[in-house]
Design a protein that fits this description.
single chain; 386 residues; Rossmann fold; 2 domains; three-stranded mixed β-sheet; 15 helices; globular; disordered C terminus
């Protein structure tokens, strides 16, 4: 990669995996523009018909995957408000924070049944470690389980409809242009866009003693079981307007708690509050692709006219890619200890996965984006459509 270019509207770079551009504008911005012209009046009735036509379990209308975060709190609240009886299902995070637990407990008070499916923590720690060393993603187990466990629950309780929140291919612009109209989440979407980084569940067999029984919940349920029940993963943002910012306001009004300051490496205090390893994941993301969580947040704010692009450039420059010395109140060293990873090993892996096409090192050893990777310098770059 000789250079990167940036969306003319937001700050997403061409180095973002699976991002497409047209006329200098990224897929996420194009999708947002299209959705601003949607006629939403039929959405609630369409959702009602789908749920009614596919209902099998007499007690529950659908499954809602929840983490206790702002968006899943909103999802549960919205479906309850629409008169549904959802079963809320949580796939636990890698290292749950106290604030994350508080927000889960708050979600339980909204008026719905709730289950949490935990996996063998010893095996999970082994997978965290293996994924960190081999694909540079310490959060890999969570990226798999948040998608597979709700489907397992759907099979177990015979609830065919799973209602996710926003479609990531729309909200963040990943995938092919046609994926911006995705209606269903299924195995293909998981395998193509589920942040597996080329590591398959089957690759974990015999790694540090891991066997097939240990991987039951990591595997997507058998195709015949999914097809027999007719499981469909819907996106709530196909039926109702989606706004992650207003979701915060609604969630707070029903008990969701934010952090007392912006999370290190971001410009927000209202997301990714449940898992101590988020900071490690976001830092490696920055080293691999030249942007981090601050960029994600800024882009969402820019699209909704809540942040000027020039102001966002300054905020991102000050916050993206900060070394994750701590996450919330927990030190990096303490977080790594759970996986028997030393600070030196962490440094070595960071160096291994750094994309030096995007970065250069100063005489003092500081890692900075190369000049042609500066959003300010490339603010008016005319992107080539692809």
């Amino acid at each position: 990669m000789n250079h990167i270019y940036y969306c003319k509207r937001c700050l997403y770079p061409s180095s973002k995996p699976d991002l497409w551009f047209k006329d200098g504008v990224c897929g996420a911005c194009h999708s947002f523009d299209k959705r601003s012209h949607y006629d939403w009046k039929n959405g609630p009735q369409v959702l009602r018909e789908i749920i009614h036509q596919n209902k099998v379990n007499p007690s529950y209308d659908c499954i809602v995957p929840v983490s206790g975060g702002k968006d899943s709190t909103y999802q549960a609240w919205k479906l309850l408000r629409e008169g549904y009886n959802p079963l809320c299902v949580t796939a636990p995070t890698d290292q749950l924070t106290p604030l994350g637990r508080k927000n889960i407990e708050n979600l339980k008070t909204l008026g719905c049944d709730y289950i949490e499916i935990s996996v063998n923590q010893q095996v999970r720690n082994k997978i965290n470690r293996h994924a960190f060393f081999n694909v540079g993603d310490i959060q890999w187990p969570e990226h798999v389980l948040i998608y597979t466990i709700p489907v397992h629950a759907a099979v177990l309780f015979k609830i065919p409809i799973i209602v996710w929140g926003e479609c990531p291919q729309r909200e963040y612009g990943a995938g092919k242009p046609e994926d911006a109209t995705l209606k269903y989440f299924d195995r293909r979407v998981l395998e193509e866009y589920g942040s597996l980084n080329g590591l398959r569940v089957s690759d974990l067999l015999n790694i540090d003693g891991i066997n097939a029984r240990d991987l039951y919940f990591y595997e997507y349920p058998a195709a015949d079981k999914v097809e027999e029940l007719g499981i469909k993963g819907l996106y709530l943002d196909n039926y109702f307007p989606w706004n992650g910012i207003s979701n915060v306001t609604i969630a707070q009004s029903i008990g969701f708690q934010t952090y007392h300051e912006p999370i290190l490496g971001t410009i927000a205090n209202y997301e990714n509050l449940d898992n101590y390893v988020h900071g490690i994941h976001d830092y490696l993301k920055y080293l691999k692709f030249g942007f981090g969580r601050a960029t994600d947040v800024a882009c969402n704010l820019i699209r909704r006219n809540l942040l000027m692009r020039d102001d966002a450039i300054d905020l991102v420059a000050k916050n993206d890619g900060l070394f994750p010395s701590h996450y919330m109140h927990k030190s990096l060293e303490e977080i790594l200890n759970a996986y028997n990873i030393s600070m030196q090993q962490f440094s070595d892996i960071c160096d291994e996965f750094t994309n030096y096409d995007l970065f250069q090192t100063t005489p003092s050893g500081e890692l900075i984006l190369r000049p042609d990777g500066s959003p300010r310098l490339l603010a008016d770059f005319s992107c080539v459509s692809n």
